[in-house]
Design a protein that fits this description.
Blueprint (H helix, E strand, L loop, with lengths): L2 E7 L3 H14 L5 E7 L10 H4 L4 E4 L6 H9 L6 E5 L3 E3 L4 H9 L4 E9 L16 H9 L20 E3 L7 E5 H6 L12 H11 L3 E12 L9 H18 L5 H22 L1
Parallel strand pairs: 1-2, 1-4, 2-3, 6-9
Antiparallel strand pairs: 4-8, 5-9, 6-8, 7-9
Helix pairs in contact: 5-9, 8-9
EC number: 2.4.-.-
GO molecular function: glycosyltransferase activity
Organism: Chryseobacterium jejuense
Length: 277
């Protein structure tokens, strides 16, 4: 089997249904499977999809252990040469899956691949192509609206939206990897409950000698934010994930950057908490 598509669901039945319909419509000329793992949703309506999509392998999880843990669990059941981590709040938009797999097959030391994403209004989502966080680009992201073109900033504005290029970090909303490589580097770090795990995985691939690619000629609709409640829990998980990342990669090796990033994250977290009130 060439491809295993892995989807983690949590209380987004209608979005998941639209995602599965888009897979049915657009994934052609590829032998594939779809594995949906439900992360202990409080809304049981996802079970209605089992009869509607009999070819999909649904896995119920008794606990919500987070996005990383659920993906790692689902991939244990995967049979594909490649795995595609796909958010349930996304929709494929074209017959590009075979092209992506052919491209990936032809790249030496292939790590992972992401594609161009946009929201429901057609706005490009800059997290489609990113740099590994460091002291300079993190300051830009946290405290400025600096989006100068031709700048290798946090969001890779030096790379055109429809380009095909080697890029450090893509988003976990659509992340294509070889299953063997995924397992070799240890999969997603389960220290991350949600957010940050995709950055960590992309960086781990680079540190192990692999190359990551942005494929901007293929596009994906991402209903960004529609499945996320912006509250204190969200903020704690988001900024907590960034803290995990800098603890892991900067605390000992780059103590000056670590101190700067830690202070910046704490300040930005407090600013966002004030905005919620």
């Amino acid at each position: 089997m060439k491809l295993s598509i892995i989807i983690v669901n949590y209380n987004v039945t209608q979005l998941l249904r639209n995602c599965l319909l888009s897979i049915q419509k657009y994934v052609k000329e590829v032998v594939y499977e779809v594995i949906v793992i439900d992360n202990a949703s409080t809304d049981s309506s996802w079970k209605n999809l089992i009869s509607e999509f009999p070819a999909v392998h649904f896995i119920p999880s008794e606990i919500n252990g987070g996005f990383s843990k659920a993906n790692n669990q689902a991939i244990q059941a995967a049979k594909g040469e490649y795995v595609l981590l796909l958010n349930p709040d996304t929709e494929l938009e074209g017959f590009y899956m075979k092209d992506l797999l052919d491209f990936s097959d032809n790249q030496p030391d292939f790590g992972c691949l992401g594609i161009r994403m946009h929201d429901a209004e057609g706005n490009f989502l800059p997290e489609s192509k990113r740099s590994v966080p460091d002291m300079f680009n993190s300051f830009e992201k946290l405290f400025t609206n600096f989006k100068k073109n031709n700048s290798k900033s946090y969001y890779r504005n030096d790379i055109e939206e429809d380009a095909i290029a080697e890029v450090e970090v893509m988003t976990g909303a659509f992340l294509l990897l070889k299953r063997e490589v995924y397992e070799k580097v240890g999969g997603l770090d389960e220290a991350y409950f949600m957010y940050g795990e995709d950055i960590d995985l992309c960086y781990t691939l680079i540190r192990n000698g692999y190359k990551n690619y942005y494929y901007g000629k293929a596009s994906l609709l991402h209903h960004k934010g529609e499945s996320t409640v912006k509250n204190d829990v969200y903020l704690n998980r988001f900024y907590g994930a960034m803290q995990i990342f800098i603890n892991k990669y900067y605390k000992e090796s780059k103590p000056m950057q670590y101190s700067f990033l830690k202070a910046g994250l704490k300040l930005r977290h407090q600013i966002e908490k004030i905005k919620l009130k």
